[in-house]
């Protein structure tokens, strides 16, 4: 009997998670028909449900930052972040990196300070992509980690020249367009960078990198993908495909 119950529970779970939207919002019950009016009209009728949501589920960022003391003000941290990025991601200003500095991407790292400076310092990316632009934007301090600055990068570049790095020793003439990627710098109380994270893709459907971030996505976009799974676009496994089909089948049975 217990085994039967466990099997039933597993099948029910499969039906649930195979529908992506349900992972986040669950089944929706509408108390009234959806209105067919403009967004402005809807915003004029902020009801108790919305006010309760804002009060309980939306963080008051200013208040949160105020209660978490950190000796460096948010605007100063953001300025330090821009200095770090302007000086070739700290390579030209290594004194900005703390001795316990770590670089961490979705796949690469963590790298120590010495390993990071050697890897990035010898890359010379712009020699192969002279129009390279990382398009950094949306700088903000994390209200839960007041020492951390988040920013978003998109970025594009065209491989019009043969670069000094062996990965780009022959120009392809191809352009890459990155998906938006979450990046961050974490500072210590002395204003030195303790951690640098980049390449965490926010929407893999954007751009032409196959949903990949960082250098792996760029190489894929210009037709030079590296020969291992982490450097290739995401591909559904047969296990997940089977799991999804099972969930869809169970949902049809419930109708």
Could you characterize what this model shows?
With 255 residues, this protein is an alpha+beta fold. 33% of the residues lie in helices and 17% in strands. It has a six-stranded mixed beta sheet. Helix 1 packs across helix 8. The longest helix has 17 residues. It is globular, with a radius of gyration of 23 Å. The two termini are 26 Å apart.
Average pLDDT score = 85
Indicate the radius of gyration in whole angstroms.
23 Å
End-to-end Cα distance, whole Å, is 26 Å
Strand content: 15-25%
Q: Oligomerization state of this entry?
A: single chain
Order of helices and strands: HHHHHEEHEEEEEEHH
Q: What structural category characterises the helix and strand content?
A: alpha+beta
> Main beta sheet, described?
6 strands, mixed
Globular, elongated, flat, extended or rod-shaped: what is the shape? globular
| Strand arrangement, major sheet | 2-1-8-7-4-3
**Proportion of helical residues:** 25-40%
The total count of strands amounts to 8
With helices defined by DSSP (H or I, 4 residues minimum), what is the helix count? 8
Low-confidence blocks of residues = 7-28
């Amino acid at each position: 009997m217990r085994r039967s119950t466990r099997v039933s529970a597993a099948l029910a779970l499969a039906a649930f998670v195979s529908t992506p939207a349900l992972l986040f919002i669950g089944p929706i019950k509408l108390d009234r028909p959806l209105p067919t009016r403009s967004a402005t009209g809807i915003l004029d009728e902020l009801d108790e449900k919305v006010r309760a949501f804002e009060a309980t589920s939306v963080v008051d960022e200013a208040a949160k930052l105020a209660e978490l003391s950190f000796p460096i003000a948010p605007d100063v941290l953001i300025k330090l972040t821009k200095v770090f990025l302007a000086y070739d991601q700290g390579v030209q200003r290594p004194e900005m990196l703390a001795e316990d500095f770590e670089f961490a991407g979705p796949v690469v790292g963590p790298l120590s300070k010495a390993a990071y400076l050697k890897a990035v310092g010898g890359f010379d990316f712009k020699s192969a992509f002279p129009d390279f632009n990382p398009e950094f934007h949306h700088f903000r301090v994390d209200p839960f980690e007041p020492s951390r600055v988040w920013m978003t990068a998109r970025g594009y570049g065209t491989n019009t020249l043969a670069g000094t790095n062996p990965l780009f020793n022959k120009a392809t003439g191809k352009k890459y367009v990155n998906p938006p990627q979450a990046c961050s710098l974490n500072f210590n109380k002395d204003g030195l960078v303790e951690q640098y994270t980049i390449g965490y893709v926010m929407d893999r459907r954007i751009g032409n990198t196959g949903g990949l971030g960082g250098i792996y996505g760029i190489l894929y976009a210009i037709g030079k993908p590296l020969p291992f799974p982490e450097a290739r676009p995401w591909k559904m496994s047969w296990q997940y495909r089977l799991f999804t089909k099972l969930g869809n089948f169970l949902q049809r049975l419930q109708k």
